Automatic annotation (TrEMBL):
One of its GO terms (biological process) is mitochondrial respiratory chain complex IV assembly. PANTHER family: CYTOCHROME C OXIDASE ASSEMBLY PROTEIN COX20, MITOCHONDRIAL, CYTOCHROME C OXIDASE PROTEIN 20. This is Cytochrome c oxidase assembly protein COX20, mitochondrial. Keywords: Membrane, Mitochondrion, Mitochondrion inner membrane, Transmembrane, Transmembrane helix. It comes from the Eukaryota. GO terms for cellular component: mitochondrial inner membrane. InterPro entries: Cox20. It comes from Dendroctonus ponderosae (Mountain pine beetle). Belongs to the COX20 family. It is found in: Mitochondrion inner membrane. The chain crosses the membrane at residues 28-45, 57-73. Pfam families: Cox20 (PF12597).
Amino acid sequence: MSEEEPRSKSLIIFGRDVSQIPCFRNSFLYGTLGGIGFGLAHFLFTSKVAKSVNYSVYAFSLVTVGFWMQCRLENSKTKFEMMRLQQQLQERALFEGSQRDPDRAPVELVEV
């Protein structure tokens, strides 16, 4: 690698750059914070270390998967809406100025 090219700080797992995966970063950040928070709260109330660690892992998993599913669903909805909008814009450009143009005012024939 030459000195002119900046070296990117990306994490590669199983051959995929995780910085390119939508929702990956936020899901793991919220999962980590949720797991630490729930585990710490459980430890403060019960003082049982092993059980608190187990609950922390459970909370991490649940929050990560839950947020991942919610975020991906929103991404899919947005992508679907963008595809529909793009199709409608293409149809509008195709029919603009023709008889099938929905915004075109009907021409009234006046007899003279």
